[in-house]
Amino acid sequence: MITEPTSKYLSNTVQSIQPSGIRRFFDLASSMENVISLGVGEPDFVTPWNVIEASYHSLEQGYTAYTANAGLFELRKEISRYMKRRFGVTYNAEDEMVVTVGASQAIDIALRAVLNPGEEVIVVEPSFVSYAPTVTLAGGVPVPVNTYSEDDFKLQPEQIEAAITDKTKVLMLCSPNNPTGTVLSKGDLERIAEVVEKHDLLVISDEIYAELTYDEPYTSFPAVKNMRDRTILISGFSKAFAMTGWRLGFACGPKAILQAMLKIHQYTMMCAPTMAQHAALEALVNGQRDVVKMKESYRQRRSLVIHALEEMGLSCHVPGGAFYVFPSIEKTGLSSEEFAEQLLMKEQVAVVPGSVFGESGEGHVRCSYATSVQKLEEAMRRIDRFLQTL
Amino acid sequence: MNSTERELLQLIEKNGRLETGTIAKLMGITEDETKQILVKLEKEKVILGYSAIIDWTKGTEDGAVTAMIDVKVTPKRGVGFDKVAERIYRFPEVKAVYLMSGVYDLSVSIEGKTMAEVGRFVSEKLSTIDSVISTTTHFILKKYKHDGLVFSDNDEDKRIVVSP
Question: Which family does it belong to (chain A) (predicted)?
Fold first, then answer.
C-alpha cells in the first residue's frame, strides 16, 4: 500500500487493487544479462510486411484524422465477413461491433457497460492478469472459479453453478486460455452454455487466441446454440497477426449492449488509432496466409517444448492453443515464485510463476514458446540443468 | 509427397543445419523416422544438396562479381531449349540457368572474380555457342536479399522481457 501523503487523493477502488505480480519479474529479469525469456506474452514475429506497408500508405495519403467512433466502416465490414468466414457467427457491421484499442479496452468497456455496483463476475482461473482488476474498476466483484491440471484446466459446469449467487451477472471465458493454453471444445462449451442459459448469465468471451489452435477445429462461444445474444465476443489482431504494439482489438455482440459500449468508447477513447485500423484492414483482406504460416511454426515449437518437458520429467498437459505451456513444478517442492526466481538467478531463464494468474496457478509456471527454436533448446537445457541442482 | 515430407522440407529449406533431433521434436516424430525421410528425399533427388547463404562482402578481400545474362537462342528441333541450356549450364562458372517467358529465352547467372573474367566468358564461351543469337549482360551491384534472406537484417528481439 502506498503511504506517501498524496496517497490520500487516491480512490479506494484503485488502492484496493494490487499491482500485477508480473511486474516484479519484469524488473528482476530486465536487470540481468544473457536472459532467455520464456516470459513474453506476445508473438515473436514482426507484423507481416504487407500490413506495415498498408499503414505507411495510409499515412502517406494523409489518413491521420479520427475515424468514426465505432471504427472505419470498411474495417467493420471486413471484421463482419471474417467472423462469419472463420467462426460462423454473424454480426452487423453497422451496430453490433466496435473497434477498440486492443482487446483489453474491449474488455474494459464491456464490463463497464453491463455492471452495476456489487454485481458479480465469474472469472475462470488461472486467468489473464487483467480480468479481476478490470471487473473491480468497473464496480463489480470478481469471483474466481478455479480450474485444475487434473481436468487439463478445463472449466467444469458444476463449478460455475457452485459459484453462482443472486448477484452473479457475467461469466468471463477465455479459450484458448492464457496462461494454460487450454482450449474448450464444442462439447465443453455446450455444457457451459446450459448453465449460462439456466442462470440467465451474460458471457464475455475473450477469443484473442482463437486463430492459434492446433488440434481440433475451433468453436467460438457465440456460435453455440442460443449463445449469440448473450455473449460479448472479444477479439483482436495482436496474437494472430502479430500486431500487439498496434493496439487494435474489437468487440461484437447484441446491438443494445454494443451501443452501450460504444457510448463509453466515444466519450473516453473517441476511436482506435487510424493508422492501426488501416493496417488491420489489410491484415483481414490479405493476411490469412501469414496467420497459417505463423500458426504452423507455433505448433512445431509446442511439440519441441512438450517433448523437452517430458524428458525432464515435468508433467504438463498438451495445450491445444495459444503459445503457452503450463507445466507443474510441484515435484520440486518449490512454490512457483521460488521456482521462477531461482531459475532466473541460477540459469537466466525467465518464466512466469503460475501464482500471478490466480490461486489455482500455484504449482505451475507459464512458459511461452513464442521464441526462436535455438533459444528454446538452450532454455530447455538450462531448465534441465537447474532441475538437477534441486 | 506426403504432408510430413513437405513439412520437413519446409523446415530444412529455412535452416539446412537443423539437427535431426530438433527436426524430430518439432514435427513430433522419432529421430529414426526423420533420418529415413531425409535419406529417401535425398535418394529421390528432391533434396539436391545443402548450402549456406554467405555475405561474401564481409571479411574477405577477394570479392566475387555476379552477372545475370539474358540470352536469346534458336531452339533445336526435337530437343527444344534443353540441349542449348545444357551446353551452357555445364560450365562451372554458371551458377544458374532458367528458361524464361518473355523477350528472351534463357536467364544465365554467372560468377567470376572480376568483371573482365565474366566479360571473357560471355564473349568467348557463351556468345560463340551455335544457337545463341544475342546476350545482354547485367552486373549485380549490391545484394539486398537472396533466397528469402535479407543481407542487413536486424533480427534482434525487440519485445520487453516479461509481459502478461
Answer: Belongs to the class-I pyridoxal-phosphate-dependent aminotransferase family.
Average of per-residue pLDDT values in chain A? 96
Packing angle, helices A288-312 and A373-389, rounded to 10: 20
Contact at CB, A20 and B160, closer than 8 angstroms: no
Q: What pLDDT is attached to residue A291?
A: 98
Q: Which residue of B has its CA nearest to A310?
A: B25
Residues of A with CB under 8 A from a CB of B: 20, 22, 25-26, 29-30, 35, 37, 39-42, 44, 46, 128-130, 178, 296, 300-301, 303-304, 307-308, 350, 352, 371, 373, 377
**Amino acid at residue number B146:** H
* Same domain for A248 and A112: yes
CA angle A132, A137, A139 (to 5 degrees): 100
Nearest one of B23, B20, B27 to A303, comparing CA atoms: B27
CA dihedral A68, A72, A77, A79 (to 10 degrees): -110
Q: Are residues A324 and A342 in the same domain?
A: yes
Given CB atoms, is B160 within the 8 Å cutoff of chain A?
Answer: yes
Q: Is A129 within 8 Å of A22 (Cβ atoms)?
A: yes
> What pTM was computed for the model?
0.94
Mean pLDDT of chain B: 93
The distance of A166 to chain B (nearest Cα, Å) reads 32
β-pair type (A352-353, A349-350):
unpaired
- A31-86 pLDDT, tens digit per residue, is 999 999 999 999 999 999 999 999 999 999 999 999 999 999 999 999 999 999 99
pLDDT tens-digit readout, A106-119: 999 999 999 999 99
Element holding B70 (H helix, E strand): strand B65-73
Residue of B26, B162, B163 lying closest to A300 (CB–CB): B26
pLDDT of B60 reads 65
CATH code assigned at A232: 3.40.640.10
Surface of B (14-33) touching A: CB under 8 A: 18, 22, 25-28
What residue type is assigned to position A388 of the chain? Q
Assign residue A242 a region (left: φ > 0; alpha: ψ between -120 and 50; beta: otherwise): left
Q: Are residues A23 and A67 in the same domain?
A: no
pLDDT digits (tens, 9 = 90+) for B18-63: 999 999 999 999 999 999 999 999 999 999 999 998 888 886 666 7
Q: What is the ipTM of this complex?
A: 0.88
The domains of chain B, with CATH numbers, are 3-43 (1.10.10), 65-142 (3.30.70.920)
Could you tell me where the beta strands, DSSP code E, fall in B88-158? Answer: 94-99, 106-112, 132-139, 145-146, 149-150
pLDDT at B124 over 70: yes
Interval A121-141 mean pLDDT: 97
| Minimum CA–CA partner of B27 in chain A | A300
